[in-house]
TrEMBL record:
Lineage, uppermost ranks: Bacteria, Pseudomonadati, Bacteroidota, Cytophagia, Cytophagales
InterPro entries referenced in this protein's UniProt entry, alphabetically: FecR, FecR_C, Ferrdict_sens_TM
GO molecular function term, any single one: sigma factor antagonist activity
Protein name (record): FecR family protein
Keyword Secreted: no
Gene3D superfamilies: 2.60.120.1440, 3.55.50.30
Organism field: Persicitalea jodogahamensis
Amino acid sequence: MKGKSLPADLLKRYLADTCTEAERRKVDEWYFHLDREQEAAPHFFNEQELLQRIRADIAHTLPTPEEAPVVPLKRWWYLGGIAASLLLLLGVGYLAFNRQAADPYTASVPDTADWTVHSNSTKKIERYSFPDQSIVWLQPGARLSHPAAFMQSDFREVRFAGEGFFEVVRDTLHPFIIYSGTLKTQVLGTSFNVKAYENDASYHVSVLTGSVAVSTPASSSRKEEVLVLKTNEQATYQNATRSLTLEPMVAKTEKKLPWQPASLVFNDTPLSEAVIQLQRAFQIKIELTNQALNTCRLTVDFNKQRLPEILEMINTLLGSTYELEGDTIRIFGEGCSD
C-alpha cells in the first residue's frame, strides 16, 4: 500500500460499509501509512497532509474540466458522495487527533478492531502471556493492547501504560516494540522493566538481561534520540522535555527489585521470619493482616525466582492471599493451627 493512491469509489464504499473485507483492510492500511511513509518514529496525525492526500486521490479518479464540461444530475450525486466521504474521513482524523493529544497512550499506534486489550484490575502482580509466548508481570492498574496475532506484521507491537516486567521471546525477524506515550522501547529478545504511568513526569526502562533500544520521536526542532541499554542499565525519559538519560541500575550487591530473581531457603521457618527475609531481599514492605498467620511455618526452596512467584507459592501452601498497594504487600489469611 505504501506510496499508492486509492480510487474514490473505493473510499466511498468503505465509508458506506459496502466494501469487501479485503478492500476494508486495504483502506485501513492506506490510512495507517498516510503520514508514516517518511517517518521511522511513532505515528502522529497530520490533518493538513491528510486533506491534501485525500484531495489528490479523489481528483486523480475524476475527469478534468476540459474533459467534462457538463455534469449530469447523477454526477452531482456522485460528487456529493465524494464530498461527504471527504468530510467523514476528515472528521475521523480530527477526532483521532484530538484523542491522541489528550491521551498520549493512544498516540503511538492506531486503534484497530482486532487488537486485544487487557488491564490488571486486581491488587496483585499478574502474569500475562502474549501471542508469541513472551510474558509480562503486570503491576496493579497496568494496561496494554496488542494485535491478536503478532506474525501478521513485521513487528510485535504493544501499547503499554503502568509498570510491568517483560520477558520477551527472541525473534530477530520480528522486533518487539512497546509504545508508552511518545517513548518507544524496542528489543529482539530480553528481559526488562518498564515504568510508564501516564501522569508521571518521567518514565523508566531498566534492563535485567540483554540489550534494549529506547527512543523518542523526531520533531521540527530536534532529531530522534536513541539510547541502547545494556544489562543493569536504566534509561529515564522526561515527558516535558522528551529527553533521555542513561544511568546504572541498582548494583547486584544491593537489595533486589521485585522483578529481579532471588534464591531463598525456608526450613520449618515461621512466616513472620520468612517475611523479614523477603523484606531484606526485595525493596518492599510486607505486612501480615492476621496475627494468627505468625504461627504458620514454611518449608520450601526458592531458586532464582521473582517476588510474585514466591508470593503465589506461599499463598498456595498456606491458603492465604495478598494485595499490593504502593510499596506495601499485605498478606491475608486465617492462620495455621498449632
